[in-house]
Amino acid sequence: MGQRHWHVTGKVLTAVIVIAAIATVTALALIIRRGLSARSEPTLLETEIARSVRHLATPAAMRSVRNPVPLTADVLADARAHWADHCATCHGNDGSGNTEIGRGLYPKPPDMRNAITQNLTDGELFSIIRNGVRLTGMPAWGDAAGHDDADNWKLVHFVRHLPKVTRGELARMEALNPKTPEEWQQMQDEAAFLAGGNETPMHPMQSQHTDDR
Ligand code: HEC
Predict the structure, then answer these.
(1) What residues line ligand 1, using a CB cutoff of 6 Å?
(2) CA 153 / ligand 1 centre spacing (Å)
(3) How far, in Å, is the centroid of ligand 1 from the Cα of 168?
(4) Number of domains in the chain
(5) What percent of the chain stands above pLDDT 70?
(6) Can you say how many angstroms the Cα of residue 160 is from the centroid of all Cα atoms in its chain?
(7) Which domain holds residue 75?
(8) Quick one: which of 49, 138, 164, 196 has the most CB atoms within 10 Å?
(9) Does residue 146 sit within a domain?
(10) To test the ligand 1 pocket, which listed residue (91, 121, 124, 161) has its Cβ within 8 A of the most ligand atoms?
(11) Residue 32 domain-assigned?
């Protein structure tokens, strides 16, 4: 009896090992063929597995938490400014993920206006923002002690608002988006031009250079 039991267990074990070996070899072969470029799109299977693991890794108690911060116009305005400054580089002001950095990440940020994000619970969204997502470009936000939890809950309101963002809001966010020195320069040049100055504005880099000498 005992011997028969071991016989069956042995067969099952062998089958498991063989299947695991085949899966590993297939995965490796795929990686070698497709390369590790961050430009490619994850396969549907990869996306499904990653999202399921992320879902399971969020404690059930956290998943069912409702947003404790009441939604007001001020809260939304705060979150919008925060989003424009901290999140839009990857996610875009409109949440589409269609930015230079967003397109180059693997996995890419999803279009957060769609059901794939909107169907996540408040608690799940909060947990993703607070803890980030390992092995992806999504960073953890706020300090570990949770002093910024209220800000993160406000961002959850903004994520919910993304499908309804207006053109006026997009324009306000553009003014708040982080700028490269070149973009600042261009903005200043434009402002000087619009103010009616007919001299070419001096380039700050040039003036710095002269001071250095
Ligand atoms: C450096 C790039 C980057 C920045 C900056 C960033 N994110 Fe993300 N974010 C990502 C990526 C990449 C993903 C996809 C992760 C995944 O596939 O699990 C993501 C996913 C998310 C998700 C889950 C969406 C879903 O359906 O899976 C939320 C919510 C989110 N980000 C919110 C934010 C907020 C709020 C900020 C700003 C405080 C922010 N992100 C800043 C890259 C970024």
Answers:
(1) 50, 54, 86-87, 89-91, 101, 105, 107, 109-110, 112, 116-117, 120, 125, 128-129, 133, 136-139, 141, 155, 159
(2) 15
(3) 24
(4) 1
(5) 91
(6) 15
(7) 44-182
(8) 138
(9) yes
(10) 91
(11) no
> Is 139 within the bounds of a domain?
yes
Instruction: Name the pTM for this structure.
Output: 0.80
Beta strands in the chain, from DSSP E residues, in sequence order: none
Q: Is 35 left (phi over 0), alpha (psi -120 to 50) or beta?
A: left
- CA 74 to the chain's CA centroid: 24
Per the domain annotation, does 20 fall within a domain?
Answer: no
Query: CA–CA separation, 200 vs 181, rounded Å?
Result: 18
Question: Is the backbone peptide bond immediately before 68 cis, with ω within 30 degrees of 0?
Answer: no
Angstrom distance (rounded) from CA 175 to CA 80 = 12
Write the residue with the smallest CA distance to atom 6 of ligand 1.
87
Which token pair is 46? 């990869």
For residue 10, pLDDT beyond 50: yes
pLDDT tens for 58-117 read 999 999 999 999 999 999 999 999 999 999 999 999 999 999 999 999 999 999 999 999
**Residue 7 predicted with pLDDT over 90:** no
For 189-211, write each residue's pLDDT tens digit: 888 888 886 555 555 554 444 44
Measured in Å, residue 37 CA sits from the centre of ligand 1 at 20
